[in-house]
């Protein structure tokens, strides 16, 4: 693609068939809103600008759009209000002032078409540039045709116009070639054509589909590109359609992962977002959910009923049954579970172990440290080779603030120890079972009791 590319995403509608108070593009496909999928595809084209037409719940749509992409893409985004929803042509006209100074071509997409691939749009751009067209758009054939505009051609097969279904004659209704709504326009040719749009049609709307006909009338070349995979271009109108699309996207993702060397024992019960990356020879057991911006390394094993969200898991890690891990990192050769909960940027250094019924919040465990059962570790920094006994609690909340607990290297925390933060346990120390530690423990010291008192020095 030689000329600069810009993107225009139409995302102003409510979506009445969703039967929802939420704007349609905010409904999720997997862990991302519909508009997030479209923006990811748009960003892959490396556009100069991404214009987003917003209307219903504009503030929420803008926030969701920005949260769906990286900061570099956010810098390219321009949000344009459409105060009234008077058709696709009106939506693009609403953006005319914003796009008039953009260079090159404009790709028009919809915020509710999350399956379109970058490669498809690259092909459309190539056809547009090769044909030196003022407009180029995708077509497809469906039998029976759905509620799309029909592609009307002359006797030699040359494009004449698009007729929306509600405006079709009986003969036009029988046409199987339809317009799914994906366009590339040269911006200087688009703007005057938008000025010629009128709402003289069955829906009293401004149709973007009339623009190619106006361009032809002005002597400008218009091209079409036939696309085989109609499902890729599907839009979302109902919750049932979201469910069907999620099923299709999920199985495409699982097939791709298995082809790359990942073992997924039961694809029918496994849910993995399309943006998740997994290393070779990792095994995913049945009933696992992995979502968000998650990365799992090679030679890992994720056991059944575990739910992982926005995780970064290094090589050779094991997650046993029924674990919940969110926004956390396992470095390498770690083991978690069963029935463990890691959250809020918890980090495990290499070869750390978190056992059954252990919750870890906003904490770091050092290399080869272990907490095997029935423990809560919150706002804690734990050194290397530490052993945390059963039923230990870091008492991190004083009613107003969350306070830190620091446990240095080679410490042994006895079962049922209460660590009343803020508190530090020095290197090589031991707490006796049932201790309530309210003061810092010096290095190489045994403490025990309620409150814990120094019993002896462990090294002379």
Write up this protein.
The radius of gyration is 29 Å and the shape is elongated. It folds into three domains: 5-233, Spore Coat Polysaccharide Biosynthesis Protein SpsA, Chain A; 261-350, Hexapeptide repeat proteins (UDP N-Acetylglucosamine Acyltransferase, domain 1); 363-460, Hexapeptide repeat proteins (UDP N-Acetylglucosamine Acyltransferase, domain 1). It has ten helices and 41 strands. It is 20% helix and 31% strand. The protein is α/β, with parallel strands linked by helices and 460 residues long. Helix 8 (187-194) packs across helix 9 (211-217). The longest helix is centred in the middle third of the chain and has 21 residues, at 239-259. The termini are far apart. The strands form five sheets. It has a 17-stranded mixed sheet that branches. Strands 1, 4, 5, 6, 7, 8, 9, 10, 11 and 12 form a ten-stranded mixed sheet that branches.
Structure keywords:
single chain, about 450 residues, alpha/beta, Spore Coat Polysaccharide Biosynthesis Protein SpsA, Chain A, UDP N-Acetylglucosamine Acyltransferase, domain 1, ten-stranded mixed β-sheet, 41 strands, about 20% helix, elongated
Q: Gist?
A:
With about 450 residues, this protein is α/β, with parallel strands linked by helices. About 20% of the residues lie in helices and about 30% in strands. It has three domains: about 230 residues, Spore Coat Polysaccharide Biosynthesis Protein SpsA, Chain A (Alpha-Beta Complex); about 90 residues, Hexapeptide repeat proteins (UDP N-Acetylglucosamine Acyltransferase, domain 1), CATH 2.160.10.10; about 100 residues, UDP N-Acetylglucosamine Acyltransferase, domain 1 (3 Solenoid), CATH 2.160.10.
């Amino acid at each position: 693609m030689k000329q600069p590319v810009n993107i225009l995403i139409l995302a102003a509608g409510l979506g009445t068939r969703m039967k929802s108070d939420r704007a349609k593009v905010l409904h999720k496909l997997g862990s991302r809103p519909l508009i997030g999928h479209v923006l990811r595809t748009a960003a892959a084209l490396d556009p100069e600008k991404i214009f987003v037409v917003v209307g219903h719940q504009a503030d929420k749509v803008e926030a969701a759009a920005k949260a769906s992409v990286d900061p570099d893409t956010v810098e390219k985004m321009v949000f344009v209000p459409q105060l009234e929803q008077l058709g696709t042509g009106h939506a693009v006209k609403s953006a005319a002032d914003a796009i008039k100074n953009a260079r090159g071509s404009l790709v028009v997409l919809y915020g509710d078409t999350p399956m379109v691939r970058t490669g498809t749009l690259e092909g459309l751009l190539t056809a547009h540039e090769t044909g030196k067209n003022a407009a180029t758009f995708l077509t497809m054939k469906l039998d029976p045709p759905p509620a799309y505009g029909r592609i009307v051609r002359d006797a030699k097969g040359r494009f004449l116009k698009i007729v929306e279904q509600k405006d079709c004659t009986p003969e036009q209704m029988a046409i199987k070639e339809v317009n799914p709504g994906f366009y590339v326009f040269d911006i200087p040719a688009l703007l005057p054509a938008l000025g010629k749009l009128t709402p003289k049609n069955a829906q009293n709307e401004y149709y973007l589909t009339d623009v190619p006909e106006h361009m032809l009338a002005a002597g400008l070349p218009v091209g079409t590109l036939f696309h085989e995979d109609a499902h890729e271009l599907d839009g979302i109108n109902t919750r049932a359609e979201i469910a069907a699309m999620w099923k299709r996207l999920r199985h495409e993702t699982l097939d791709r992962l298995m082809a790359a060397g990942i073992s997924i024992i039961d694809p029918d019960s496994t849910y993995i977002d399309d943006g998740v990356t997994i290393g070779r020879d990792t095994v995913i057991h049945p009933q696992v959910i992995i979502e968000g911006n998650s990365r799992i390394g090679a030679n890992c094993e994720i056991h059944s009923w575990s739910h992982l969200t926005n995780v970064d898991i290094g090589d050779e890690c094991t997650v046993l049954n029924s674990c919940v891990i969110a926004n956390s990192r396992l470095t390498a050769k770690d083991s978690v579970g069963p029935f463990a909960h890691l959250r809020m940027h918890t980090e495990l250094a290499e070869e750390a172990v978190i056992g059954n019924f252990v919750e870890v919040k906003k904490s770091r465990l050092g290399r080869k440290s272990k907490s095997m059962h029935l423990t809560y570790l919150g706002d804690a920094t734990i050194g290397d080779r530490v052993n945390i006994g059963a039923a230990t609690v870091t008492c991190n909340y004083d009613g107003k603030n969350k306070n830190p607990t620091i446990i240095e290297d080679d410490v042994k925390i006895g079962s049922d120890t209460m660590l009343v933060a803020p508190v530090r346990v020095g290197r090589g120390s031991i707490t006796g079972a049932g201790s309530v530690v309210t003061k810092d423990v010096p290095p190489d010291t045994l403490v025990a009791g309620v409150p814990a008192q120094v019993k002896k020095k462990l090294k002379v």
